[in-house]
Prior knowledge:
- This protein has 385 residues and is α/β, with parallel strands linked by helices.
- The relative contact order is 0.08.
- It has 16 helices and eleven strands.
Amino acid sequence: MPSKKIRVCWVNGSYYYCNRILSQIKSAIDNPEIYIYGDTTDAEYVENQISENSIFSENRLFILKALPKFSGSDAKSNKRWIALFDSISEDSIVVVYNVDPKKHTAIFKHVSEIGKVFYSSSHMDRGDALSWVNEFFEADGKTIDDEVADLIVESIGYDSEGYDTDKLYICLKKIISYLGKKKKKISKNDILCGVDNYINFVIWDIIGAFESRDFSKCVLLMKNACSKEKSPKDAVSHIFNTLFWKLRLLLFLKEYVANGHSQDSAMQKAKELHKFSKSGAGLYSSLEVELNKGGGMKPVYSDNAISSAFKSFGGRKPSIQCFGRSELFKLVVAQNECMLNIRHESDDIHCIIIAENFFMSSCNILDSQLLEKIRRVPHGGIHSF
């Protein structure tokens, strides 16, 4: 029978969370002898190391970053891991470190019964992210305004699951390192200097300039983005991929509200838009709805992305108010043409010119029909302009 004292833990979630829990476990053990094994170590070797008694230390900590398969069937392999965890000696503690439980359901279920499971989501919602930013600076003896905290959270961007905990942690550590110990009151300018090298932050700033119709700032920020990616084409593609989803969300929300529905109803409908992924190849390819970790349909947009369209950040107007209905239609069409041109373009300068054309369209510079004609020049024909 397994000992009543916990001898095995399963730690899973963001790197920041897992590392913090592991540090707490290490500090709770008096002078531990630490062993770390990954997926390149044979399961039989790990089993032997955990099973044998140590003559050099009374406290051993085994950190397993993978659960390699024993020889034989999957069922037999699972049974050996379960038996091993049941027989951990009094001088040892085993930590299964950031291993996906869904790949080892039987073992995970057993560990949750006889040991301890530590789990934290790899993403946070906006409210938790803002609270965490404030707590992080308070712990370092620093204070920030809500606007500054908002700027930091937005600098990492968000995906379908929310705000990435690890990205936010790295961003905060970089800012703290840049500011040093003496700086106590954090300003917006401090953050701009501290996170300037993040390509996501540069692109987020481009979106702000784009929405405020500031063409010169769009061009300057695009130049900055080009210096942080492998090539100008990569930077321009990154910008357009971000704008691709944002403009379509704004168009959907704008049209839904314009057709007599409430803002809340529009937000709810946007949540029902689901992601599709392609499976198979050639004649046998098909589109399938992507599923999230819980088995449900994965949404195209996160709750944060949808609600933020109606909110103002950093003194800016809500995104939904920055463009009219007809403008959004024209911008989506212009964006489609620009992205197709970039996809088939190998010259970096041409990619930059295509992006500038789009910014001119969004900032109402030059006649829209002239800009449309330039975009529709056959591949390589841009030399004639």
